[in-house]
Write a structure and sequence with these properties.
- The protein is mainly α and 163 residues long.
- It has one domain.
- It has six helices and no strands.
- The chain is elongated, with a radius of gyration of 18 Å.
- It comes from Bionectria ochroleuca.
């Protein structure tokens, strides 16, 4: 594993392929953070790892029933949503990377798309967890839309190259 990280840092690894495990980990970070928040603050008695989806569902039910969530509970729900969005979007990115290489797109171009994608996903996670206002949520949405660009661009470039 250390050889992998060393190769990425030194530029000897394929950056877009290396972004696949990196974006999986990036997607999981909000989940780990919210587990920490729930445990350290004993939200609902602490994180219930035996059935984590039930833990999140109970918070959603509380909100759906019109009960006011604490700021911490809202942060936990946003973190879990950020995680879910990351895992949902990961497959699209992975397919884009594969199509980029099937189409033999230049490595520099793939690297540029990769840096944009990973950077935007990191900013998106931060905004998803920290944004508390409706107005602020529009910035998060704009960042999400920007994070779509690299995959869409790769698909378009691959469509032209593979015609």
């Amino acid at each position: 594993m250390s050889e992998f990280f060393s190769a990425v840092v030194s530029g000897r690894a394929n950056l877009s392929v290396a972004s696949l495990p990196a974006t999986l980990l990036l997607s999981a970070l909000p989940h780990w953070y919210t587990i920490y928040l729930a445990e350290s603050n004993k939200v609902q008695g602490g994180w219930t790892n035996q059935n984590p989806r039930a833990f999140v569902a109970r918070l959603n039910v509380k909100a759906a029933n019109g009960k006011k969530l604490t700021d911490l509970e809202e942060t936990i729900l946003r973190g879990q949503s950020a995680q879910q969005n990351g895992f949902e979007w990961w497959a699209v990115w992975a397919v884009a990377v594969v199509f980029g290489y099937l189409a033999k797109l230049p490595a520099a171009e793939m690297n540029r798309y990769t840096l944009i994608h990973v950077g935007m996903r990191a900013v998106y996670n931060y905004l998803y967890i920290s944004t508390k206002s409706r107005r602020g949520s529009y910035l998060r949405t704009a960042v999400f839309q920007l994070s779509l660009y690299p995959a869409v661009a790769i698909f378009c470039r691959a469509a032209l190259a593979l015609a």
